[in-house]
Amino acid sequence: MAERMTSVSSPHVAVIPFMAKGHTIPILHLVRLLVSRGVAVTIFTTHGNSPYIRQSLTGTEASVIDLSFPQNVHPELQQGIESTDKFPSMSLFIPFVTATKLMQPEFDRVLESLYPRVSCIISDGFFPWTLQSATKLGIPRLVFYGSVSHGPNSDDEPFALPDFPWIKLTRNDFESAFTEPDIDGPHFQFMMEVFAATRNSNGIIVNSFCELEPKFLEYCNREKTPKAWCVGPLCLTEPPKAAVEPFQKPASTLEWLDEMLAKGRSVLYVAFGSQADISTQQLQEIANGLEKSRTNFLWVVRSSMCDEILDKEFQERMRCTGLVVTEWVDQVEILNHPSVNGFMSHCGWNSVMESICASVPILAWPMMAEQHLNARMVVEELGIGIRVLAENGSVRGFVTSECIEKQVRELMEGENAKEMKKKVKQLSEEARRAMEEGGSSWFTLEQLINEFICGKEITVPT
């Protein structure tokens, strides 16, 4: 790999988050940290995502530049869909990320005109084309990630990882794009672009902390490139409440949790993120399982799903024990409410971090992407949760209401509930120490700023 040398005089970073809440929220927390360390930050987004980003960064000196999202690039990508949260189906993901490549000429043009000169690009991993932009300017590209083997004869047959023999995975822990790849298909080709661009970048910024996964971090930085920089949990970088006021949950949600607390009731928080496609039949089983468990629950669900299955009769029956919410909620605030003692989660990495920081054990029900691997880590490596399994013991497949009832009860009142609570509380304390001045994540970010952003001579791939 050829190299160029450059010297930076004024710290100025360009940040381009991917257009999905799970990617955007943690990178905005990182922006706040950088600004607090005296780094000038310019964020690139699209017109449709700009209001949320600007409101979220109220009170900071970060700049926001709006790029035009390409139009008429796919028949199902209607005008105004500039975020994966608005997808009618995740089948639009590849057309969407392909369309973002058409933003590069405008991105490059604006990037070159900025003053002070940009000293580094922090790009979401789903924008592999930003490597070309960084190379053209002779500046480093850092990749932000808000986070196989062969041989088994069946999808659920465990196999060990060669370098970590105590870890057992199955083919079902991976998406079919990796276990049965169509090497000529667009999904495989896109992931190869992402991997290649990441490998040729200067570093990977990870929303984690070294005390959570020291063996894996040491292995990655010894055996793999580029270096991983753990600077989280970024959810502990909370903005002032006034900055997110327009997006706050209805007051009734917090009032209901307060009511549960006053009655001495423990609450299970249920949320599967904004991307999961859950069938009508599975939703019905979740509703029935929660009802049978007699556990108090707060269930956040998309309004379209709610209208399909969670009728007024169900909500009326659950009036004293459960609350169904269809609006956006402040998940961090809910998890930190003293009445919440369990989280039925899809195990998106942001949700895992937020649950750990709030000392809340997890009922792990992964749906897609890397969530199955996150769930393995939560249950088997960290011991802070239990796994939702289908009746046949598989990590994928239809889950009956009887299984849900049993696993909810096990999380909330089972014989291991106290031990899981103890372990997650210890991790929460370590996470907070990592983010405090002098902690591991605080120090890592300081090193990263000095190496790639401030006036130190740096090595840049070309």
UniProtKB/TrEMBL annotation:
<dbReference type="Pfam" id="PF00201">
    <property type="entry name" value="UDPGT"/>
</dbReference>
<keyword id="KW-0808">Transferase</keyword>
<dbReference type="InterPro" id="IPR058980">
    <property type="entry name" value="Glyco_transf_N"/>
</dbReference>
<keyword id="KW-0328">Glycosyltransferase</keyword>
<dbReference type="Pfam" id="PF26168">
    <property type="entry name" value="Glyco_transf_N"/>
</dbReference>
<dbReference type="GO" id="GO:0035251">
    <property type="term" value="F:UDP-glucosyltransferase activity"/>
</dbReference>
<feature type="domain" description="Glycosyltransferase N-terminal">
    <location>
        <begin position="13"/>
        <end position="234"/>
    </location>
</feature>
<dbReference type="InterPro" id="IPR002213">
    <property type="entry name" value="UDP_glucos_trans"/>
</dbReference>
<protein>
    <recommendedName>
        <fullName>Glycosyltransferase</fullName>
        <ecNumber>2.4.1.-</ecNumber>
    </recommendedName>
</protein>
<comment type="similarity">
    <text>Belongs to the UDP-glycosyltransferase family.</text>
</comment>
<dbReference type="InterPro" id="IPR035595">
    <property type="entry name" value="UDP_glycos_trans_CS"/>
</dbReference>
